[in-house]
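Assess this today:

___
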Amino acid sequence: MSELNLKWYDIAKWGVEGQGWTGMEKPYDRIPARAKNIVTQDVWNLSHSPTGICAHFNTDSTRIYARWQLESDQLGEDNFNITGFSGVDLYCFDEKNQNWRWAGAPPHFSIKDKNPETLLIDGLEKKMRKYRLYLPLRNPTVKVEIGVDDGLIPVPPRKEKPIVYYGTSIVHGAFAARAGLGTSQVLGRRLDMPLINLGFSGNAKMEAPLAELIAEIDAGIFVIDALPNMDTPMVKERAEKFIRIICDAHPDTPVVLVEDHPNMKAWLKAESEKWHKAKWNAFSKVYRKLLKEGYKNLSYVKGAKLFGTDNEASMDGVHPSDLGYMRMADIMEKAMKKALSIA
């Protein structure tokens, strides 16, 4: 698209938001290189996904393009469409309403290989605006550039304490249509806080070494949402230690524990419903035990209604659709505001 006369800006020049550590093996990793032999191999592999990572910039350009280099030839998978798995996602700040609103994303047919280049939005009035560009949910990303007419002003990542959101493929954004639509990204915008997304697909299982790594982050709030990957014995074995590690390191920082939403077919299967309830009971017992011991920074979110109650907010009965992500964000927003003492 060189004929378009664009000026291209590499976001690496001013830095991205969403990394809780320095010393990454690859530019948009989510955990540091020194953790390679600390976490499981699966978590390490998934940490190369730039989920939740974003860049900020201001521009008065009448059009905005993006081009980026992906590491994997795999552009999508069974529970990630191409636009979410491999696509960037552009938001613009609405000064009138004081909130972030979606502005543009690549159509799925424009991502044909590892080097996409596409228009995100055009036809704009020449006016300075604030933008946020989310990186792909899953495909490791090597380089990202923004193309404008002229006048791009880089905005470095914010220094405020972040949301640290740890969890499963749901936190990782499975089935979300775009990179900015996962619950944690929605919450980052609504609460106006930086976000560190630590979703590790099917491999978030409350391993103690990972808790120790997470506890290194000076967070504004921690969210622990790994229950979808765990059964009752695993909850009994791991949850208490995992939570203690984080709470002991940050006794004054809110820590929100989240149950999983039941499989949407569970109401038809008595054994499935029983399985979920047993797991919730084990998790809530850990929560109550820690409260009695004096851990005052803990709060708890029940899972039964996270995606709603009409069974209309999932593609497969397990992962939320965009509707499910928004419903979950509504519940989590209330819980997190209460934990943060935000009116």
